[in-house]
Write a structure and sequence with these properties.
The structure is a homodimer. Chain A is of the alpha+beta class. Chain A has three domains: about 15-25 and about 460-600, 2-Layer Sandwich (Aldehyde Oxidoreductase, domain 4), CATH 3.30.365.10; about 30-130 and about 190-240 and about 250-280, Aldehyde Oxidoreductase, domain 3 (Alpha-Beta Complex); about 355-450 and about 610-750, Aldehyde Oxidoreductase, domain 4 (2-Layer Sandwich). Helices cover about 30% and strands about 25% of the residues of chain A. In chain A, the strands form nine sheets. A seven-stranded mixed β-sheet of chain A has the order 3-5-1-13-10-11-12, with helices on both faces. In chain A, strands 7-17-16-15-8 form a five-stranded mixed β-sheet, with helices on both faces. In chain A, helix 6 packs across helix 7 and helix 14 (about 485-495) packs parallel to helix 15 (about 525-550). Chain A is globular, with a radius of gyration of 27 Å. Chains A and B meet through helix 1, strand 20, strand 21 and strand 26 of A and helix 1, strand 20, strand 21 and strand 26 of B.
Chain lengths: ~750, ~750
């Protein structure tokens, strides 16, 4: 029974009609008078010094309005982690050096694409080659050339974490395993590539329409890169066709190039990344080599774990300085450990840049952990479900790495998923070539630490009540397709006791909506949600206090529900709309506005954590090695669901991505070149290959979430790969440790047990 | 010496760079994916009943997506004066009846213009003709068919005002004159015609981008016409290429048609009025027949005036029910009267709709009054300047019709203009064929009466301070080219003690900016300006109180200037930006926001009044009758100027319009058809014909205006025509009473004296 009127209901998303009808305006749909076509040129050298650039011939191409190179920039670097100065190493328009083949080395604005392309081909570069480094191992060899001069040993960051006495743990272990796992070079593949339009207004203001997860960070980066005040940059968020982390690094090359070209020409400039640009120059999931040594006792308790992770960071930091730390922390979700030691190293290479991607290191490390857990369970003769039940975190626990977990529904999820998947019966009775497997994951909602020294990890919202009682919610949260716009309106409507339809949502525009750091780290539901709830609570408070005074009744006896304000004791009621009018009449029609913010209480880790379990059933074609995922049962504790339909969409989407991660996705690199930068060659799952996904909701409300909500859909990308790989073991009797498990791997690879 | 830092400075307008560079987005520049071309069909019958419409053939035209007629509407009427139900008679898409040839009878949305045009041509109408009425006299004849059934005698409104004993006044007069004046059918001719794009979002929200002076009224009208809540309609104001009153009537036919076509097709629909549509279907200045009987004593005091005004209202009310009242009131500006009687009648005809146009009846009646005053001066042997000095209102006076005039700089303006124009010498010494003449006017700033029963005549503003100390001003005021955006930013910057560049302005968008009734009645400077000043004052108060508490000093000793907050006594200072950050840090980074409103104290008339005088020098070609205006000296009391350069632009623009009104502009009507609906045939003044305009500022600050400001540029369209006609008398010895005074009139017309 849902105790809420708007919350917890499967309200169709605000943006659905426009998207279904094709009228939703993405950045690519925007046209401005006099707009020029911008194009970027990427490096063909993976590692080289730029000695000389000659743009004279390019400038003479008819229709070309401007040609820019790194010499037209301040040469500054940027990165999303402003608080860590050493990570601000991404040079959006390379000046002196290129570090990978996705480095942008020039850009052109022209009347049309042909002129732009021709001009790009006529820019002449003189290079001094530097020895390229394509693996972390090569890069860390003594004497290797430095990719970033200030980073000795090409080490982007090294993290060592020690909790408890690991040696003692291993001594006490009944069974210890050591395994090495590898994960591949995975691309986010948002259906909409990066696109930006920039306009310049004299004397020095820039407006950007750009598909980003972090409008606020883009504003801040552009101000830094261009050397202007932050308020001189306006970032407007059109509809965005997916991000999954690929659009969360702040400013990308196209943002800076479009801004510079707009300044140079006085015209708006649009730059659209090709699919190839999207694969090569943006970001990818960190490929990892994960070594796990894990000891369990006879009862299956994990009493010691030692983890070593080597990450190919590619050419720049991106979110990588966080990634190498997070991998260590996320490995401890969702289980209890006796002792834990982690060593993580992120190395720079001349490969594409690794950064955050849906799950931000959790899918990689939790894949390794959950596959090894199955091996350990087998070793000690335990069912995979039992060993997970035994180690699962519970409400109020603190992970060994220090995450305070206010609520954890993992056990409920495990029970639900076992029930729905008919776990024991299927495990016992599936014929050869078929298998069923399980994976678990935990994931946090919104990082509480400061990304920038001067700004907390906050979210804010403004609610305005109109004269006719209609409401507008202004929020800087970035809905890039995940549905946050809709759930923020649901939260506001629930808190205010009005209908969903009474509230109009104003999307992120840094000149209009108040600050929100954006859509990364699964923060919008909890962070922006709390800010919205807070603003709505203040509007409610203003109105109820005012009407209580009018009625001469006690404020505490008043409520709003279904658009009606009432005081039961005094048997009085009035519509929200009437009350809003009365309030404004009594205040010279000053707009009734309230502001809300959320400044998370945990400044080190996170507000709360979601948990999920998936059971995958697979069928292997023993002749071809083809794996068909027949069905996935997914159970997820995301606290109080704000919109169940939206949660299901998230779960299904994460399964799609998880299957690709497990079975097919891999950017093939050769000498720093991506060999398959196209949707024809890079194998994301096609619709026909999607299995049936059954969703079961577990878990109750969380005290820190707005109305008890937690993140949904980022953590759930994690359980899919281990569930599939564990199922493959039943189907093939082979243990797979290297992703993706392609048909060739199924036939030839793996380890017979 | 300017005591202000930002106010009173000639800061270039915010919108200048974009407009100069061609990047400013007007509605016509906007393109949306899937957007359809909308076209309207206007009636060719001036007065008829629609018996039957057949759209079947039109619908079959390839590329046509929707065809609508009045049958697709709720049949409701609208009009800007919501408080006067009888004036809500404008049916934007005619259903049963047409009342003039500008009535829109159908609209089409199609893939392109050709398909739309072809479809319009294939709609079949069956009519029942009704006797058309083309003059107020015909229309008011007993037995004439009623244009609006509920309006007997085709009288739109009749107003009788009596102040003092007019009969007694005439008895005491030394000299009495009776004269009849006529004014022509003048079009606003904004360079940008009416353009609207509408988009519909299921289940029932509409977004309009429309070039209007009154976004808020358009929203309200559309909600009424479509039968939805006001918050379901969003009106966004792109840049607007002039209005001059033509875009102040609320919703026009294109707004409703675009909205209906968008709903019908699910696609955005753009409708662009042709120049012909613009002339015929929008609005025009009321043509008037003005009879004045005026008595003066030997000293030149106006001791009695009886005025009769007959106005051709055209087919609908528009602002007309106000116009007929205002003509009576404005006639009493800018002079003192002993006694006054006014009878005004506005009649419906089957001509284009008359409504508000720059000066809203003042130019017509003040033309008559100021020309007659010259005749009276001559009759009693007085100089035109002397008789004006004698009768000019002064600070604190109340006009005979009840306008309380807090400040009136008319005498200063008269002195200044006499001085600058070398009045006495030129009057005495100009050779034949040349002449110099004078005209005066007064005009109010912003009507205080309620336009709608439920909403005061208010303006509101919101100011938000960003984390980096940058400021955003959100205001619903409609800058249609007059420069209000810029002066509102100046007002905010002055009040806050920050630089003009520190504030970014967010233009009217009813989902984002708080309510403002719009740009009519010269209200933005005083109304929106006061709301902005109020909001800025509150931001200042919040910040100063907070910092005073931090410093433990008295709030009253604190100030902000040049972006610095300081307390002189304590010798402390801090930048505004730092203070803004500190404030927000201390408040969980809740956005620092303040709201302001202005609810005018005078609920019947106006907040304050501006005054102006112009002296025109003309040269007549005695062979061709061509009149060349050689020079205009204009002096204007607009209180404290917010932006002198902008005031001058307004003054020059009003002279341009005043000359056209005096000498050339006339929509020639024949049987309800406009014979010259094109810029080739309708003679607005060409740039080469513009005289030198010299501006002199007179008058001091007004207590009710923000920093003492008053309206500028609307009232100043008034003095031009009488100044020219009075100058023509000196040049030709002919008195002209009928506008425009064309070359033919100069040669043949007028009255020899």
């Amino acid at each position: 029974m849902n105790k809420y009127n708007v919350l917890g209901h499967s309200i169709p998303r605000l943006d659905s009609p426009a998207k279904a009808r094709g009228t939703a305006m993405y950045t690519g749909d925007l046209e401005f008078p006099g707009m020029l076509c911008g194009k970027i040129l990427t490096s063909w050298m993976p590692h080289a010094r730029i000695l000389h650039v000659d743009t004279a011939e390019a400038r003479r191409v008819p229709g070309v309005k401007a040609v820019i190179t790194g010499r037209d920039t301040l040469g500054r670097g940027c990165g999303p982690m402003r608080a860590r100065e050493k990570s601000l190493d991404f040079i959006p328009l390379a000046k002196d050096k290129v570090r990978f083949t996705g480095d942008v080395i020039a850009a052109v604005a022209a009347r049309d694409e042909d002129a732009a392309d021709e001009a790009l081909g006529r820019i002449k570069f003189e290079w001094e080659e530097i020895q390229p480094l394509f693996t972390p191992e090569e890069a860390m060899k003594p004497g290797a050339p430095l990719i970033h001069e200030q980073m000795p040993g090409n080490i982007s960051r090294k993290i060592v974490l020690t909790y408890g006495d690991v040696a003692e743990g291993f001594r006490r272990s009944h069974r210890i395993r050591e395994d090495t796992f590898t994960t591949s070079s995975v691309s986010h593949v948002p259906l909409e590539p990066h696109i930006c339009i920039a306009a310049f207004e004299s004397p020095g203001s820039y407006t950007l329409w750009t598909g980003t997860q972090v409008p606020y960070l883009v504003k801040s980066d552009l101000a830094l890169l261009l050397g202007v005040a932050e308020s001189q940059v306006r970032v407007i968020l059109p509809f965005v066709g997916g991000g999954f982390g690929s659009k969360s690094d702040g400013a990308f090359s196209l943002d800076l190039c479009a801004a510079l070209l707009a300044r140079e020409t006085g015209h708006p400039v649009k730059i659209v990344y090709s699919r190839e640009d999207e694969f090569i120059t943006t970001r990818r999931r960190h490929p990892m080599k994960i070594h796990l040594k894990t000891g369990v006792n006879r009862q299956g308790d994990i009493i010691a774990r030692q983890a070593g992770v080597l990450m190919d960071g590619g050419a720049y930091s991106g979110w990588g300085q966080a990634s190498v730390y997070l991998a260590g922390l996320f490995l401890c979700l969702p289980y209890r450990y006796g002792a834990y030691h982690y060593e993580g190293v992120r190395a720079f290479t001349n490969n594409p840049v690794s950064s955050a991607m849906r799950g931000h290191t959790a899918p990689q490390v939790q894949f390794a952990s959950d596959v090894q857990l199955d091996m350990l369970a087998e070793d000690i003769g335990m069912d995979p479900l039992e060993i997970r039940m035994r180690n699962a975190l519970e409400n109020g626990e603190v992970t060994i790495a220090g995450f305070k977990v206010p609520t954890c529904g993992l056990k409920e999820c495990l029970k639900a998923v076992a029930d729905k998947s008919d776990w024991y019966a299927r495990r016992a009775n599936l014929p050869g070539g078929k298998g069923i497997g399980m994976g678990c994951a935990g994931f946090p909602s919104g990082h509480g630490a400061r990304l920038r020294p001067d700004i907390p990890a906050y979210a804010t919202a403004i609610i305005r009540v109109n004269e006719d009682g209609g409401l507008h919610l202004l929020c800087g949260a970035a809905d890039t397709g995940q549905g946050s716009d809709t759930i923020l309106v649901q939260i506001a409507a629930e808190e205010l006791g009005v209908a969903f339809e009474d509230i109009r949502y104003v999307r992120a525009d840094t000149d209009i909506t108040p600050a929100d750091l954006g859509s990364y780290s699964s923060r919008e539901t909890v962070f922006a949600g709390n800010a919205v709830k807070n603003a709505a609570g203040q509007v409610k408070e203003k109105l109820l206090s005012f009407i209580a005074a009018q009625w001469q009744v006690d404020r505490d006896g008043m409520q709003i529900q279904g658009g009606q304000i009432s005081c039961l004791e005094a048997d009085k009621s009035m519509s929200f709309k009437q009350a809003a009018r009365l309030y404004q009449e009594a205040h010279h029609f000053t707009p009734l506005v309230a502001e809300g913010s959320y400044d998370p209480p945990d400044k080190v880790y996170y507000a709360n954590y979601s948990f999920g379990v998936q059971v995958a059933e697979v069928e292997v074609n023993q002749d071809t090695g083809q794996v068909k995922v027949v069905k996935v049962v997914s159970s997820h504790d995301c606290g109080q669901m704000v919109n169940p339909m939206s949660v299901e969409g998230q779960l299904e989407g994460s399964v799609h991505m998880g299957i690709g991660f497990a079975l097919s996705e891999n950017m093939v690199l050769h000498q720093g070149q991506v060999l398959n930068p196209s949707l024809a060659d890079y194998a994301i799952l096609l619709p026909a290959d999607m299995p049936a996904v059954e969703c079961v909701h577990g878990g109750a409300g969380d005290p820190e979430g707005p109305f008890g909500a937690k993140e949904s859909g980022e953590g759930t990308v994690g359980p899919t790969a281990p569930a599939i790989v564990n199922a493959l073991y039943q189907a093939t009797k082979k243990r797979f440790r290297d992703l993706p498990v392609t048909p060739a791997q199924v036939l030839k690879g793996g380890e017979k047990k």
